[in-house]
Amino acid sequence: MLPTRQGSFRLFQLAGITVFLHWSWFLVAYYGISRRSDAYTSMVWNAAEYLSLFLIVLMHEFGHSLACRQVGGKADQIVLWPLGGVAYVAPPHRPGATLWSIAAGPLVNVVLFPVFTVGMLLSRSLGWGDVMPNLDTLLFSLWIINGMLLVFNLLPIYPLDGGQILRSLLWFVMGPARSLMVAAIIGMGGVAALILLALWWRDLWIGIVAVFILLNCGRGLIQAKKMAQMEAMPRRAGYACPSCLQSPPEGEFWVCGRCQKPFDLFQSHGECPHCGTGYAAYPCLECGSVQPMGKWIVTVGSPSGD
Questions:
Q1: Do 56 and 136 lie in a common domain?
Q2: Which of 47, 53, 129, 306 is at a distance of 20 to 30 A from 217, taking alpha carbons?
Q3: Are residues 3 and 69 part of one domain?
Q4: What is the value of pTM for the model shown?
Q5: Dihedral sign computed on CA atoms, order 158, 164, 169, 170
Q6: How far apart are CA 219 and CA 181, in angstroms?
Q7: Total domains in the fold of the chain
Q8: CA of 121: how far to CAs of 15, 140, 235, in Å?
Q9: CA–CA gap between residue 74 and residue 280 (Å, rounded)
């Protein structure tokens, strides 16, 4: 239940990463700017504050993307929307790689925290608040915003960064399926707390965030169940994915793109037995990477199913 490019338009591309903006951002931006009309003497400063907020969010998402690339993953798209931003990252199917790809986002906010702190202290010590009160207010607001984003993102509630970091740490001892299930269940508890908080404060935005998290926790539980079923299946001896080092399962789990019938890609040596369509690259059902047959690691023993 994450934002997609549908309803978004391309802003720019940097370092091979394309940034998209959802159209609804403008509606929420108008609401966010107008509700703080009394914070500054000019609406220009309100707009500057809101744009700075999303610049911080954008830097946060670039942290995810660049870290994912650093560990050999794929990351080429960021979507900005009213609730923040989403970096579409596909790190290698390893807990360490996933952990670094997720943790790098909050680390950007950690780095920005002393930057805004120094700026705010300079403003106070040099008397900018008397000469340029709007600038002083902006610096203080950005200091607060960056700190709140950091704390909120580190809450151990899936799919927030904190919840995904927790899942990555649990992955080292529980495996990918059980760690995701535990993180999603903990996330459900966090959703209950957010709903109570939204009712107590009568805050619509917290309620919307709670619903968003609830939908993604449910999606995570379904995904964890499928992963657990996949882990329990017998594996085909002789092959291992070069990305995640997992052996493919035995069975008709691949679907032919031409006739739409399921078949066992490895047993049929890359050819659909129903329509004869050949496949030069084999997709891994564990991590999603697609590799030419020659790159699949040949493990001990010979391929079964011959």
A1: yes
A2: 53
A3: yes
A4: 0.84
A5: positive
A6: 10
A7: 3
A8: 33, 9, 60
A9: 21
